Structure prediction request, 265 residues.
Amino acid sequence: MIYLGYIAAIFIGISLGLIGAGGSILTIPVLVYLIGISPVNATSYSLFIVGISSAIGGLRYLKSNLISLRTLIVFGVPSVISVFFTRKYLLHEIPDHLFFIGTIEVTKNAALMLLLAALMLVASFSMLKKSIPLKSDVQKNLEQYQYFLIFQQGIIVGALVGLVGAGGGFLIIPALVLLAKLSMKRAIGTSLAIISLNSTIGFLSDFGMHQFDWNFLVVFSGLAIVGIIIGSYLSKYVSGVKLKPAFGWFILVMGIYIITKELFF
Prediction:
């Protein structure tokens, strides 16, 4: 099964290169169901993989000056702090056994997978819905920069990233477009920078709490990066906009599968 996991790593990278967001949310299911890593440890592994992948993917945006420093600070600082406290303190305080739903026991591992599945459903709906026409830069400049709401969103996204180890680009990008008034390209670039920071801090917060298989991490991350390079090349010939709904349906099915598996099997 580990070889299927390695193949999946390439496809995760390809999806990131083609679409720009959403692919990293598949990392945890691959690590748990194909590789056999426990959900809690898988969140740590995912933070490393997502952090490296986001950093590589964000380099071209940095070179093109498509990262908003103001938004990186206003959104990124509370987000990073939230990730740190969630990983360092909150996650490890959650008991292994939570509650029963009838005869079904909900454990910590199951709860993390169910939360991830819920986020996957949200991500799929955001990919399937029709895009809202973007406002012009002139209209954006006339609107007020929502400092408090951006700060608040940073805290929420940071907590979710800390819990499930997913990048959260599908939550960050809409917030940056609507609240920070960024163009889509600057929102994607800034999102990748935020995801990279969040994932790095989250992973570093786990040192001393988990044993890491560094050989596996390097190989899996390397394959994901190869996938990103392939996806970026294919994006010149294949429209990511057209692929987005199909990928949305795939994430929807995966989310339903996780919920069914965790609750009934």
Summary: The beta strands are 97-101, 104-107. The chain has a mean pLDDT of 84. The radius of gyration is 18 Å.
